[in-house]
Amino acid sequence: MKKLRSNRLALLAGLFLLPAVLPAQKADTVPVQKHEFSVQQAVDYAIKNNVNVKNALVDVQLQEEQNREFTSNAYPHINASLGTTYNPNVATQVLPNFISPATYQVLVDEGVKDGNGNPIQMPGDFGFISAQFGTKFSATAAISLSQILFDGQVFVGLQARPAAVQFRKKYAEVTAEMIKVNVHKVYYQLVVSKTQVELLDANIVLLEKLLHDTKLIYENGFREQLDVDKVTVQLANLRTEKTKLLNMISNGYFGLKVLMGMPVKDELVLTDKLTDEQIKDGMLDVNAYKYEDRKEYQYAQIGKTLNEYNERRYRLSQIPTITLNGTYAKNAQRNKWNFFGKGDWFTISNVNLNVSIPIFNGFFTRSKIAQAKLEVRKIENQLEALKLSIDNEVESARNNFRSAITTMDFQKQNMQLAEKVYQQTKKKYEVGLGSQTEINSAQTDMKTAQTNYVSALYDAVIARTDFLKATGKL
Q: What tens digit of pLDDT does each residue of 310-349 get?
């Protein structure tokens, strides 16, 4: 019993550590629903409502939007702009005096004389003149286009989009697989608990009958009051144990609801039954398995593909990039802000074809390529290690499953034998041929055998689930 309880408590504690957010429920506004679920229906509900799975699916949508963001690099980028400028003080430029030399040259050529009668001579330095270029107001309306014609990194990114989405989807599948395993274990733990409750009820009925018979024998003077008291104590202990078990089962239902993302106030009924034959049916015939059946292996393979794309991206960054840019604009200048009135607007347009040729960047690209190749090698090593881990997990799960089935069969036979011994001892006790000690010992042995059987049954369910997960068949 201690072993069974510790297993259950450990599993439930692990479930409550899973990050789960339950929306606040108001008893007076939210109707309580009743759910009657098989284990597959419970798994389907959990995959739809568990917060970890929902967030993993949101990550898929995020990746799709990131893909659209990256795809935008391959489309034309068109922008329009409107602008106006006010110059309170138009900038003044100082220029060499290019006007005076021409004037003096005309005077010299014509032989013009100054006031003293001397011919005018060309000065050696004409100095500078100050001039303002522009107007107080200007306005510009423009539209521009930019288009990547060839960029190796962009093209590789476009090719990697499906793999990036698949990587996110596979992670969602890995998360769902983890939830599925836990739902199976807790679901069948609660189903096994029903068997334990049934055995306790049967024992309570037996002790009630024994107490009744012991009282009759006592009244006839063949037993002592002490014998009656001992049976009464045993009956009280069983009823207390049942109360504790029912409380633990109730908490188990709460844990399963949290795992499934179900409001804790809803009623959950488990419809599946569990028998020894169901646990053993065809399971040990599963010998062949494939690494590719495991979601973790598939996830790692996609990760390797993405890193290979990364290496290729850095390699293609060494080839030229070609871009096309164009601008068409209208420009006007005024001394008053009246651009919507009459006046000229001057056209400005240009088209640029740019070729960027990488020559040397301090071995940066070579280092990035080497890093990407090493990342690929790491994932290849992880895949090999994962294969070994899967092999070990499958063989260990198979051994544990076989051992669990053997133990379950043995404990079932032992329980049946203990029940038979108890019935025979009880008959001897009733006819006065057996002692109170014998009946107490037989009852204790029977209860221990029942507890061991329930524990073995639960261990077999867990071993079955672990074996199916290890072989990718769950």
A: 899 899 989 999 999 999 999 998 888 888 878 889 999 9
DSSP annotation of 472 reads T
In the structure, what pLDDT confidence band is assigned to residue 285 with cuts at 50, 70 and 90? Answer: low
pLDDT surpassing 60 at residue 4: no
Closest CA to 434 of 424, 449, 444: 424
- Fold (topology level) of 2-79+150-322+360-470: Outer membrane efflux proteins (OEP) (1.20.1600)
pLDDT at 126 over 80: no
Contact call for residues 213 and 299 (beta carbons, < 8 A): no
CATH 1.20.1600.10 residue window(s) in the chain: 2-79+150-322+360-470
Among residues 396, 403, 405, the alpha carbon closest in space to that of 280 is found at 405
The predicted-structure confidence for 149-182, as pLDDT tens digits, reads as follows: 998 888 898 999 999 999 999 999 999 999 999 9
- Give kind and range of the element (H or E) at residue 157: helix 152-219
Using CA atoms, how far residue 59 sits from 19, 52, 64, 166, in Å, is: 16, 11, 9, 11
Q: How far is CA 384 from CA 44, 151, 284, 374, in A?
A: 32, 35, 26, 15
